[in-house]
Specification:
6 strands; 3-stranded antiparallel sheet; Acetone carboxylase
Length: 99
Amino acid sequence: MPSRVRVGGVILNVPGSEPASPICSAKGCRADAVWVLAWNNPKLHTPDRRKTWLACEEHREYLSKFLGVRGFLKDVVPLEDWDSQEPLERQEPPQSPEA
């Protein structure tokens, strides 16, 4: 059975010497993640901060509802699209016009 390793806030499957693959964040699930659920808790995080959970097809709706009823869910994006985007925390703030 593969071991689990946390890398940069993402839990990865590490099956021996094979490349690591992201797995679902649902408790006890070891399925490959295919969705990124971007969220933030407004009581703890600034409005532009995004935390992420990963979800497999089976747990996408459950995890989305869990975050949604609390008002935390901000976006649900396919993992392949998320990988190609620059994370929100790393984006540069808009530049003010020079006077």
